[in-house]
Amino acid sequence: MWRYRDRNRKRKRSICVLSSSKSSKDMENLGQFDVIVIGAGVMGSSAAYQAAKTGQKTLLIEQFDFLHYRGSSHGESRTIRATYPESYYCRMAIESEKLWIDAESEIGYKVYFKSQQLDFGPANNSSLVELINNCKKHSINHQILDRHQTNKHFSGRIELPDDWIAVVTELGGVLKPTKSVAMFQTLAIKHGAVLKDRMEIVDMITDEDRGGVLVSSRSGEVFSGKKCVVTAGAWVSKLVQNVSNGGTILPIQPLETSVFYWKIKKGYELDFTIGAGFPSFASYGEPYIYGTPAFEFPDLIKVAVHGGRECEPDKRTWGVDKEGTTMVIGHLKEWIKGRFGDRVNWEDGPVMSQSCLYSMTPDEDYIIDFLGGGFGEDVVVAGGFSGHGFKMAPLIGKILVDLAVGGKMAGEKYDEEIKHLKLGRFEGNHKGNKKSFDDQVRLK
Ligand SMILES: Cc1cc2nc3c(=O)[nH]c(=O)nc-3n(C[C@H](O)[C@H](O)[C@H](O)COP(=O)(O)OP(=O)(O)OC[C@H]3O[C@@H](n4cnc5c(N)ncnc54)[C@H](O)[C@@H]3O)c2cc1C
Description:
It is built from 11 helices and 19 strands.
């Protein structure tokens, strides 16, 4: 059930408990930082890099091991594209692409492998229609192709039904998730950040002595931060609910999802690679299906459904959900047979799957805002990336740090982007932003 109430309170009681449980020497020695980032997935790691790079004394804290596989930012591939039915994400993706390239040049290795992006679906699909409008609005170089032109453009490798169209754009490709998170963490360390893993943050209170916040871990460590950025992925609602004494409940539903890898048939292996001009792709309609060129595992191509089943992030099935999985694989088999013909082995099903978490909001838009209440502008929360946040991580890290350090005024330069992403959109309106097209994620 989605709920949002904003009644954070200053919790003097908790400060007293903390203060009385620590000697004054302990309190002097308590780690003091300009910015504390909670959660070291791609968003938190990018934010820690941006904070440290701009000279902030930064602490990044992760509950599990760094680069673990229990959240949303691990694995071998994420797509990047500027094509969105929501205008605000187009601009963000274009800006983010530049920042990916900047970060790559600073670290000295690649995490972004460019290809074309192909979006396709029924010509009257409302999301696809809006996506094309946005290409025009944002001067995104694009070609609109019918089924024959698409087939020709990709040398016979992609087949579309009669009434479908395709949009080809140049900003597309594959981001390497685990490698990207490692990159941001390495860059954060390079700029002086302190990184701590296996440390779950369980509480946060206002620090009435120094200003800012005190965050405390399950094992009893306390850190003081002038500002705090919360990027706790699928756990963010739980954490925010705890620190606000139940006052703020973010409308974020964790979903467990699986990506599937399919074997390319003998003789066609090279056809599906970036080198041979195969694109990252999204297929609009029911269900929304997406994938990446053959890249991370030789002779395998990733094709998956954008969706999942509701879950508790700490109690997952890890993909063993016979009924739901059978249905999804059924959709994918039909789709692969139709789009890739005899080149990919759909008959025997996928040869590999990988489990992951989505954090869904009711409108599939991100949440980026101050926590407010007693924390005022000292705490910025980001979550609900709804299965499409990875590509934006460099820009989101930058926005979060600007908001945390500079407050509302600094955030004004991003107003066009983040005005749609604020928490207030759920006040008295559980669905959030209104859209002229259908939801893309379906529950299994
Ligand atoms: C299968 C799959 C495919 C996807 N494909 C794409 C794609 O093609 N393109 C795209 O742009 N996006 C894609 N996404 C979405 C993208 O990966 C996510 O939006 C992004 O990774 C979210 O990152 P995050 O940092 O918010 O969350 P996470 O990576 O989950 O990071 C949150 C971190 O916070 C930590 N944490 C939580 N609570 C605490 C606490 N109390 N104390 C300390 N640490 C804590 C967690 O352990 C976790 O490490 C996909 C996602 C999935 C699952």
